[in-house]
Amino acid sequence: MLAWMDEAAAAMATKICHSPNMVTVKIEEVVFKKAVKVGMQILIYGEVSKMGKSSITLQMEARKYNVYSAEETTVCTTNIVFVRIDENGDSVPIPSPVRERYAHLS
Fold first, then answer.
1. pLDDT band (50, 70, 90) for residue 90
2. Do the bridges between strand 31-32 and strand 22-27 make them parallel or antiparallel, or are there none, so unpaired?
3. pLDDT by residue (tens digit) across 9-23?
4. How far apart (Å, rounded) are the C-alpha atoms in residues 33 and 15?
5. N or C: more exposed end of the chain, with fewer CB within 10 A?
6. What distance in Å separates the CA atoms of residue 34 and residue 51, rounded to the nearest whole number?
7. Beta strand extents in 1-106 (DSSP E only)
8. How many other β-carbons are positioned within 10 Å of the β-carbon of residue 88?
């Protein structure tokens, strides 16, 4: 479950920051609210909770989905921090237009 959330968050971070070079630097407290069993459909949602100069924090939530009732139940939540890096692995700024779009969260 945690690997799925990290992968979904990484895809989101690369899209938002216009860079394939985003690396996970921190997964904060993970809260497991319900058990997940093999065969359950899981939906993963995320939103930006903080934008820094070279980092982005995403609030992630996994929900089990009931195909019969369309009901979604939260099963896991966490915050994941990513940093934008260059080809040498050094942090580099996220483009200014992206940072400005999320300036209200800083």
1. very high
2. unpaired
3. 999 999 999 999 999
4. 28
5. C
6. 30
7. 22-27, 31-32, 41-51, 55-65, 72-84
8. 6
Question: Cα(33)–Cα(44) distance, rounded to whole angstroms?
Answer: 14
Of 3.30.565.10, 3.10.129.10, 3.40.47.10, 3.30.70.790, the CATH number of 2-105 is 3.10.129.10
Closest of 54, 61, 103 to residue 82, by C-alpha: 54
- pTM of the entire predicted model: 0.92
Does the pLDDT value for residue 33 go beyond 90?
Answer: yes
Q: What pLDDT shows up at residue 105?
A: 87
Q: Which residues, in sequence order, are bridge partners of residue 48?
A: 58
Question: In this structure, what are the phi and psi dihedrals at residue 60, rounded to the nearest 5 degrees?
Answer: -115, 145
Distances (CA, A) of 76 to 1, 42, 85, 86, 91: 8, 10, 28, 31, 29
Average pLDDT over residues 82-87: 97
Half-sphere exposure of 87 (CA within 13 A, CB side): 0
